[in-house]
Amino acid sequence: MVSNYAILINNDTKQIVGSLNGTDRIVPASMTKVMTVLTAARHIKPEQLDEKVTLSHEAVDFSYAGGGSTSGFVEGEEITVRDLFYGTILPSGGDAATQLAMYVAGDVDTFVGMMNDEVKDMIGKTPLDAIAVNK
Fold first, then answer.
1. pLDDT surpasses 50 at 40
2. What span, in angstroms and rounded, lies between the C-alpha atoms of 29 and 94?
3. Is 3 marked active-site?
């Protein structure tokens, strides 16, 4: 793994044992998208994957205004929820991630709260247990 930022934590004591720029504030970008997909997957039923969604101005603007990467979808384009998952992960599209969040929670702020709840639920679990998607 190559990174300019890292924190190594002793899982038994919960103490930080090593750090590389560990107190610097960074934009987590793709990690946020991974968490978006995980949270959305836990709240979307398989039969919803082929539902059509119209890409909103808010989703497109959110990504472009922040200078983030996009999936290439355009405002007003009708795509499936499955496409939102693909657009979030494959090109790391902030527009698709934003629209997926709004599909699941109604708005981005509510979805961020859901992601924070997911992270709290993961604390103390093994990595495989933490990412298991509920069926």
1. yes
2. 9
3. no
- Is 33 catalytic? The answer is yes
At 11, list the tokens.
Answer: 């899982």
Query: Which of 3, 33, 69, 125 is an active site residue?
Result: 33
pLDDT digits (tens, 9 = 90+) for 7-28: 888 888 888 899 999 888 877 7
The residues pairing with 78 across neighbouring beta strands, listed in sequence order, are: 54
The Cα–Cα gap between 100 and 72 comes to 15
Q: Pick the catalytic residue: 14, 30, 63, 135? A: 30
The partner residues of 79 in beta bridges, in order of sequence, read: 53
Chain segment 62-92, per-residue pLDDT in tens: 877 777 789 999 999 999 999 999 999 999 8
Instruction: Identify the active-site residue in 45, 52, 56, 92.
Output: 92
How is residue 62 annotated by DSSP? H
Q: Is 14 one of the annotated active-site residues of the chain?
A: no
d(CA 49, CA 45): 7
